[in-house]
Amino acid sequence: MGSRIKRMFANAKGAAFMPYVCCGDPDASFTISLVKALCGNGADAIEFGIPFSDPIADGKTIQEASNRALAGGMTPSKALGAIARIRRGGVEAPIIAMTYYNIIFSQGQDAFLKKLKQAGADGLIVPDVPLEESAALSKSCKKACIDLVFLVTPNTADGRIAKIARRGKGFLYAVSVLGTTGARKNIDPAALTLVKRASRHGLPVVAGFGISTPAHARRFAAAGAKGVIVGSEIANIYSRQMTKNRINRKTALEKIAKYAREMKSACSHTVRQTPGRSPGHANRDA
Predict the structure, then answer these.
(1) Longest C-alpha distance within the chain, in Å?
(2) Out of 44, 98, 210, 280, which could bridge 16 as a Cys pair, Cβ 3.0 to 4.6 Å?
(3) Which residues pair with 21 in a beta bridge?
(4) Annotation marks residue 285 as catalytic
(5) What domains can you pick out in the chain, each with its CATH number?
(6) Residue 40: how many CB atoms within 10 A of its CB?
(7) Residues β-bridged to residue 18
(8) H or E stretch at 84
(9) Is 215 left (phi over 0), alpha (psi -120 to 50) or beta?
(10) Cross-strand partners of 206
């Protein structure tokens, strides 16, 4: 397990707050400021999106963020450069890169992973590489000292979760909804059950997809999630301060900082499930 990721889970108060950022939306400079604002206001780790033209696992919000980033000239090499600048700026939180395999393949798998590590990343999420096709990537990640994180869904059988947990490193990413990323109002009870099922296999379990409110974070932490990933709501907040591709940075970062503090507080203070109450109504607690 990567040392930063291991220390994060060991030291986090409650569940870790792990926001997702799309590198280059609307430009690399804002992304770097966004990461610093998040980490300075409670984020325990960053899921760092390297934009791709066909992000099949992502919903409308992240797709739009990726399109803006690509239109602005973001490339994989520039994204790695942004990670390096974040590290030089003093951010010590784990950085888990998220991208699609075509980028890794086109850059040369071993060369890309070596550069990713050199830039300062600790982990990698590749949603379009299934377990059966992951052996070579797992080997390359191990060689580069990068934790390869796998996803499990409510439809994943227990036996398969066990196999994925044996191959995965860092943590298991529990997808809380069937479908793509995007903020939702309610929690599917199956997602909370998934957290409990996945937690039996040794790796910390982190919930993501559809999580947007402090109430959501509290419910997943109470179910045993060791971390909570939020992406679309982050992009929603700052994109409201954008006119075309120009952004009111000061206001956007202030709103992001406030949201990060609220989410970290929720991750740190779980609530018990009231008997007979459906967790699908968790948004009423916000």
Answers:
(1) 53
(2) 44
(3) 48
(4) no
(5) 3-266 (3.20.20.70)
(6) 13
(7) 229
(8) helix 76-88
(9) alpha
(10) 173, 227
